[in-house]
Specification:
5-stranded mixed β-sheet, 4-stranded mixed β-sheet
Length: 305
Amino acid sequence: MIRRTVYKQVLYDTIKRATTTMSKDVIAAFENAIASESSPVSRKGFESTLESLKLSAQRCSVACPDTGWPLFFFKIGNDCELEGGMLALEEAAREAVADCTRDGYLRATMKHPITGADPGNNIGMNIPDFTYKFVPGDDFTVAYSAKGGGSECFGGTRHQVIAYADGLKAIEKTIIDWYIDGTKTGAVCPPSVLGIGIGGTANISANLAKQAAVLRPIGLHHPDPMFAQIEKDLYKALNSLGVGIMGTGGDVSVFAVNVEYAFTHLDGIIVSMASNCMVARRAATKIDADSTVNVLDTPDWFGGR
């Protein structure tokens, strides 16, 4: 049985790592952008941001002042035993969020949607958010994403119903139009990691897009060749826009386009986009059945992707 004291500490440490230390694939995306960017201004932007990220990791300080929404993704083995069960896990996660807020690894950004009441600890109705995936085995993995407001609120998250007859071309045009609009108005912080959800109901499509944006490592493609090609085509098209880092112009406008899909109704195709910041903050930790703690560089949410 995995003791509560063990997973409570893991939850705290995972949040702290997510907000202060970037994953290897994110660092590699910056290094690749520096090597390939032809615009001196954009190249300097990438270099300065990368240096800032490295200093944040060294000093254990938050990589961005907007620490966003607290999002937990739990991957639980069917035979996993957690002391106290799922309710204790969620309570420990809330405590970890409050503790990280108190200790400065999260900024208090969660407020009541109407009154603006601020508890000061990022805990409230339906926040933090919990997503579960059950798999074979007896271990437990937590992934945490600090999903920033800049990539979420003013154009980075969208959905629309596409007529089935309009198909792939309409899907791709819609996504390109969304990204042009979002970057033109300064609503997102490019280059983005874009998650795209195709199919399902509105919430299924949106959840797939969010998970693709915050959990898929940069540079890994969908195993289905059809969807991998969609990712590559959109990546090429969006980078040809010349948006550049923070809209300054350049060759790198997105770090990745990650597509996930669900079967849909013949009436139409719901398409969703979730934009993640270039400072794609996430961390993951696995706990074995004997309480051995393993720090992971990627969440492995999609089974190797």
